[in-house]
Amino acid sequence: MITVTIVRRAADRRIVSFAVEGHAQYAKPGKDIVCAGVSAITVGTVNAIEALAGVQLPAAMKSGWLSSDIPEQADQAAEEKLQLQLESMVVMLDTIAQSYGKHVVIQEQLLK
């Protein structure tokens, strides 16, 4: 199963980090559309943030695992672009979880 953890700051619901770990085991490696979809969304979001918001995310990745702490931006416009892309990632992952809930779970944590 793939577990996606979204960590938000309680005061303003800003996403401060996310982590994705595990394998969907929906199909054999190389044919697993659930793993491929989650990977495309998460890695694509990291790449899009760098390309469109100009923010270099400190991301760590290996097989079955991706994690990133989200640096707060002093520039309000960059911060809004960054958060919009992260919220978009959450919506896309929720869409996969709705269809493949036995293989993907999304959990949110609030920081005080």
UniProtKB/TrEMBL annotation:
<dbReference type="GO" id="GO:0008234">
    <property type="term" value="F:cysteine-type peptidase activity"/>
</dbReference>
<dbReference type="GO" id="GO:0006508">
    <property type="term" value="P:proteolysis"/>
</dbReference>
<keyword id="KW-0788">Thiol protease</keyword>
<keyword id="KW-0645">Protease</keyword>
<dbReference type="Pfam" id="PF04327">
    <property type="entry name" value="Peptidase_Prp"/>
</dbReference>
<dbReference type="InterPro" id="IPR007422">
    <property type="entry name" value="Peptidase_Prp"/>
</dbReference>
<protein>
    <recommendedName>
        <fullName>Ribosomal processing cysteine protease Prp</fullName>
    </recommendedName>
</protein>
<dbReference type="GO" id="GO:0042254">
    <property type="term" value="P:ribosome biogenesis"/>
</dbReference>
<keyword id="KW-0690">Ribosome biogenesis</keyword>
<keyword id="KW-0378">Hydrolase</keyword>
<comment type="similarity">
    <text>Belongs to the Prp family.</text>
</comment>
<dbReference type="InterPro" id="IPR036764">
    <property type="entry name" value="Peptidase_Prp_sf"/>
</dbReference>
